[in-house]
Write a structure and sequence with these properties.
By secondary structure, the protein is of the alpha/beta class. It is built from nine helices and eight strands. β5, α5 and β6 form a beta-alpha-beta unit. α1 crosses α7, α3 runs parallel beside α4 and α8 crosses α9. It is globular, with a radius of gyration of 18 Å. It binds NADP nicotinamide-adenine-dinucleotide phosphate. The site of NADP nicotinamide-adenine-dinucleotide phosphate has 30 residues, from α1 and α6.
Length: 249
């Protein structure tokens, strides 16, 4: 479970442990991970932590190695670690865009490539994308692009692995009440525009844990998210016009 030191990942680790999974919590902040492991253990769950930077292949290999060493198998990979980036496309710094792709797209790829050789039939890969990975919105185009790219990897991989019995799920959360926005990279001092109130990370965690159990193709957390994606797919020009107000400063 990557990105488990905060927000959606932290809530998902708790949820998976409460459903009886043995969980490896991975992220860079070891102190937060250690505290989470203590909490899970105190409530009767089983968890260990692995300090991991998903952009670093060696670090990811070590996480997978430790998982197999401790638990004897690796059944589910949840690629949740992620980083936001705000800024108009005309102003994005290429180095910021590259780094956000390293975390949001190459990071999951590193984890998938390290985990797959250890996964047998019935294995599950769950990639946490976003509704804005289905329709890019103004002032976060770089972040959206990284999630579109992740979806592409998920779609190709799902078909490639179908015969081997490993499922690949894309989860598309909408706004979720975590520290994501505060943790995001910013291009300039962009104004934080309106965004929906959003759902709790626990609600997203329940959807991710269901996906880890059943391995569906796509997961939307709320009906509103599903309707948003259906609407913008059916009426892209209207969506452009509706989104113009978000492009204002
Ligand atoms: N919040 C939303 O509105 C929203 C909506 C749709 C999708 N999402 C997606 O949901 C996922 C979780 O986001 P969140 O809302 O829970 O945000 P968050 O609270 O900022 O958590 C992000 C997590 O990713 C980890 N992370 C960042 N860079 C990493 C790296 N290089 N290596 C390993 N771990 C790294 C962070 O841990 P460390 O800093 O300790 O490494 C942290 O645990 C992300 O993929 C995000 O794109 C969020």
């Amino acid at each position: 479970m990557t990105g488990a030191s905060s927000g959606i990942g932290e809530a998902t680790a708790r949820e998976l442990a409460s459903r009886g999974a043995s969980v490896v919590v991975a992220a860079r902040d070891a102190e937060k991970l250690e505290a989470l492991v203590g909490e899970v253990s105190a409530s009767g769950g089983l968890a260990i932590f692995a300090k991991t930077d998903v952009t670093d292949r060696e670090s990811v290999e070590a996480m997978v190695g430790r998982t197999v060493e401790e638990f004897g198998a690796l059944d589910i990979l949840v690629n949740n670690a992620g980083l936001g980036l705000s800024g108009r496309v005309s102003e994005l710094r290429p180095e910021d865009l590259r780094y956000v792709f390293e975390v949001n797209t190459v990071g999951p790829l590193n984890c998938i490539q390290a985990a797959l050789p250890r996964m047998g039939r019935g294995g599950r890969i769950v990639n946490v994308s976003s509704v804005v990975g289905k329709r890019a919105i103004p002032k976060v185009g770089g972040y959206c692009a990284s999630k579109f790219a992740l979806n592409a990897l998920s779609d190709a991989l799902r078909v490639e692995l179908a015969k081997g019995g490993v499922s690949v799920t894309s989860v598309y959360p909408g706004t979720t009440r975590t520290s994501f926005r505060e943790n995001s990279r910013r291009t300039r001092d962009e104004k934080r525009g309106w965004r929906p109130k959003g759902v709790t990370p626990e609600r997203v965690a329940a959807s991710i844990a269901d996906a880890a159990e059943k391995g569906p193709r796509d997961v939307y957390v709320t009906l509103a998210d599903r309707l948003f994606v259906a609407g913008v797919t059916l009426l892209p020009g209207l969506a452009d016009r509706a989104l113009r107000s978000w492009a204002k400063d």
